[in-house]
Amino acid sequence: MARRSEHTREQLHDLALKAAGRIVAREGISALTARRLAAAIGYTVGSLYLVFRNLDDLILQLNAQTLDELHGQAREVAEKQPDPRKRLLALAGAYVRFAGEHRHLWRLVYEHRQPARLPAWYPERVARIFALIEGALTELAPARRPAEIRQAARALWSGVHGVCVLAMTGRFDDSSETAVQAMASLLVSNFLDGFVATARGARRPAARRRVK
Amino acid sequence: MARRSEHTREQLHDLALKAAGRIVAREGISALTARRLAAAIGYTVGSLYLVFRNLDDLILQLNAQTLDELHGQAREVAEKQPDPRKRLLALAGAYVRFAGEHRHLWRLVYEHRQPARLPAWYPERVARIFALIEGALTELAPARRPAEIRQAARALWSGVHGVCVLAMTGRFDDSSETAVQAMASLLVSNFLDGFVATARGARRPAARRRVK
After folding, report:
1. Which residues of B touch A154 (CB under 8 A)?
2. What is the pLDDT of residue B29?
3. pTM of the entire structure?
4. Residue A173 phi, psi dihedral angles, 5° rounding
5. Are A197 and B198 inside 8 Å of each other by CB?
C-alpha cells in the first residue's frame, strides 16, 4: 500500500480517481465514501480534500472519466463506419454494450445529482459524444437545420438510454444482450427512417400531417 | 388516528397501501419503513404483516396501484382520440405528465428490484397499458405481425421512458414540461413515420436497406 507523501498532488488525484472508479464499478455508488477511498490508496481522508473539493466534486470528475471512456469507444466504432445510418446503429450498439459492461459507473453518470452550475469541462464531455451522433444525423439529413439535428440527436439518444435503463432494471421479458440490442436497433432504425423521410418532404396522409 | 381492530383485514390492507402511497409520493421510497407506515395508520408493525408478506410485497402492490392510476389516465386520453397517430402522441404526453406529477411513485415502478417470480396479477397491469399502445400501432400498420407490434410498442415506449428519466434527473438543457413534451413528441413522430413507411414497403436506398 502506498504511503503518504509518496506522490505529487497530481499523482494523488489520479490515483484516487482510479480507485474511486474501481470501487463504484464493483460495488456501486453507495460503497464510495471518503474513508473507504482513502483506505484504498493508503492516504488519510484529509489528503483527499487536498485534491478534491468534496465528494460531489470527486463524483463529477469520476463521471467525466466515464464519459471519456464512453467517448473513446464510441469514436472507435464511428470511425469504422462511413455510412451514417450504419454508424448510428453501431453507436447505439456501443452505448448499450457500455451500459451493460459498466453498469454502476454508467448509472452514476445520469443519476448523480449535479451541481446547479456545472464547470465548463463537464458539458464539453457530453457534447463531444453528441457530436458523433449529430455528425451522422447531418450526413443523413443535410437539409435539416443545426437546431433540428441537435434536438433529434437528444430525442433519439434519450430513447436508446431508455432501452438501457429498462434492460438494467430487468423490465423486459428478455434482457439478454441480443434482445436489448435488437430493441435499440428497432428504435433507431424506425426513428431514422422517419427522420430522413420527413426531411425529404415525403408526404404523409393529411390527417396525420396535421399532428406535427 | 385509527385504533387497532377498528378495521377488517381488507380495510387495513387498503388503508396501509394508501398511506404507503402518500409517504412515497411526498418523500420517496427511502422514507417507507414498516415502522413509519404502521405509525401513519395507527397500527402496530405486526398488524402490517397480517396483510402483507413483507415490504417487497407491499411495494409490488403499491406499484400495481400506480400502474392502475397510470392506466386510468392513459385510457381516458386514448378514448378521446380516434386517430391512432394522434392517440400515440397523446399517450406519450400523458406518460410524460404522469412521470412528472408522480415522480417518486413512477420511479419506484421501474427501479424497485422485482422478485424473480412475479405474481400473475402484476404483469397483467403492465400489459393493459401496453395494449393501448399496441392497439394504436396495429391501426397504423395493420400489415404488421402481432410480434412486430409488440416489439415496436416496447421499443417506442422505452424511448419515451428514457426521455422522462433524463428529464427527471435534469440532464436536458431545458427540463420544462413543454420542452420534455416536445422531445417525446419528436421521438414518437419520427418513430411512427418510420414504422408506417417501412410497413408500407416504402423504398430506402439500397445501402441503407441492407442494414435492417
Report:
1. 172, 183
2. 93
3. 0.89
4. -60, -40
5. no
